[in-house]
Specification:
Shape: globular
Strand order of the largest sheet: 2-1-3-4-5-6
Radius of gyration: 23 Å
Distance between the termini: 56 Å
Number of strands: 19
Helix content: 25-40%
Length: 466
């Protein structure tokens, strides 16, 4: 028996032991952070269900509560600590409640120590790459064992074939790689997710095929930097991300393929060609610019220039005129001068991003930027952030206005108060009247009103893809 089989048997043993105690009991899961965290939580939910728990959205009903944390910004960590604090009252009401905390925040020693010393009602913590340890940690506590606090990130979970309990029956994320080797100066991800590790391409394609057969309409290929995907099977025909993307787009079925996140330094014209050539590729590309100044980009260790970024944007718009380009921007990075910030505004106007996710820089303990000189004052950061948002809003509103009167195909995603919300293939959010039975279906919607962040329309009979 090989080591992998032994580990799998151990995992199954702990699952069986917990299942003996979980009949009629409920588990509550709370997730913070990015899509990768959401994907982890779907696996955690799968493990919890496999152990025999019923999933509840009411924390007060739980016999086991699990919090999945984020460490990308200080605000996310403070929110996680606040939520963890709420478990204290729940445990006072139900002493048998078991509470666990998982994720990026728990990889950091100082945060695990904080939980251990200041939150005595937390029973265990564990970090990324350790999802398969959940049954062991839970059983240990259920059987009267000591509190456990495991820091660092563990081995990759990809080879464990862990169960997945997906939130949606029509949209699915497929993790193709994890970790990051880029070490951007502001980013904690390489320290809490580890170095890059890619899944075998055959495994990815097989998962996509299963999802399409089950009726999924939207597949998102997921990773900290999908563009740096490298097949661990060096003898396979598929070696890089563009080849994998093309192969996924060739799977038969009525579905759309997206991917995130993408680093501009690794984005290629070949990848853009692949998007242009496949009818299943979403007409959307997320390119995190972060800053428009070459000096700031060097300080951030981003490894591309504003000139190379604009060349990529121009190529994408030339090859795919209908493409939606989105980005991330950080305001107030250490050493950012007014001239550097003006370069960022200039890049927004040149690239004309359809939308952006913008953030005020905050220190991440353990990253190079946290120790840099030239930290920008809070007042200056707030002023620049407001100016950035004003420019971004003007561009988004103007570009959205171009859709008025057009009819486009929308995947209905949610229902609230007699209205449906969904996304067009290029990622735009669209609201329209309809019945909840349409959730998960493609609907043709004629746009009547436009705004900064979304479009509003009504169901139409024909489609003109915008």
């Amino acid at each position: 028996m090989n080591n992998t089989t032994e580990k799998k048997l151990e995992y199954n043993d702990y699952v069986a032991l917990v299942r003996k105690q979980s009949a009629g009991k409920f588990a509550y899961l709370r997730t913070l952070g990015c899509q990768q965290n959401a994907a982890d939580s779907e696996q955690l939910a799968g493990i919890v269900a496999e152990m025999g728990y019923n999933i509840t959205d009411k924390p007060e009903a739980a016999d086991f509560a699990l919090l999945n944390t984020c460490a990308v910004r200080e605000h996310a960590e403070l929110k996680a600590l606040s939520i963890a604090g709420n478990f204290k009252a729940l445990k006072e009401q139900k002493s048998s409640l078991v509470v666990g905390v998982f994720g990026c925040m728990m990889v950091q020693q100082h945060r695990a120590d904080d939980i251990k010393n200041s939150h005595p009602y937390i029973d265990f913590t564990f970090g990324t790459g350790m999802l398969h340890r959940l049954p062991e940690l839970l059983y240990n506590r259920l059987s009267g064992g000591k509190r456990q606090f495991i820091t660092g990130f563990g081995e990759d979970d990809a080879d464990w074939e862990l169960p997945i309990l997906r939130e949606s029956s029509r949209q699915a994320s497929v993790t193709i790689m994890s970790g990051c080797d880029n070490f951007c100066a502001y980013c904690i991800v390489p320290y809490v997710r580890g170095r890059e590790r890619s899944r075998d391409a055959d495994s990815v394609i097989a998962e996509v095929c299963r999802l399409v057969e089950q009726g999924y309409r939207e597949i998102t290929l997921l990773g900290q930097n999908v563009n740096s995907y490298r097949n661990p099977n060096r003898n396979a025909e598929i070696q890089n991300f563009t080849q994998l993307f093309r192969a996924v787009c060739e799977v038969e079925g009525d579905f759309v393929v997206r991917f995130m996140t993408s680093n501009p330094k690794d984005a290629t014209t070949d990848l853009i060609d692949a998007i242009a050539e496949s009818p299943r590729a979403a007409r959307q590309l997320h390119l995190p610019l972060q800053a428009g100044s070459n000096a700031t980009l060097v300080a951030m260790n981003r490894k591309y220039t504003r000139e190379s970024f604009l060349e990529l944007v121009e190529y994408a718009r030339r090859c795919i005129p209908e493409i939606s380009l989105t980005t991330d921007i950080i305001v107030g990075f250490p050493g950012e001068r007014e001239a550097d910030f003006e370069d960022t505004l200039d890049m927004l106007r040149r690239a004309e991003f359809d939308s952006m996710y913008s953030f005020i820089y905050s220190k991440r303990k353990g990253t190079p930027a946290a120790e840099m000189e030239g930290q920008v004052s809070r007042e200056v950061k707030k002023d620049r952030f407001a100016r950035l948002l004003a420019v971004g809003r003007e561009i988004s509103q103007r570009k959205n206005a171009e859709y008025k009167g057009k009819t486009i195909r929308v995947l209905a995603e949610s229902y609230d108060k007699d209205k449906l919300a969904g996304r067009a293939e290029n990622g735009r959010v669209i609201h329209f009247p309809g019945e909840p039975s349409l959730i998960g279906e493609w609907v043709n919607v004629k746009i009547k009103r436009t705004g900064v962040h979304s479009l509003t329309g009504e169901v139409a009979r024909s489609v003109e893809q915008a």
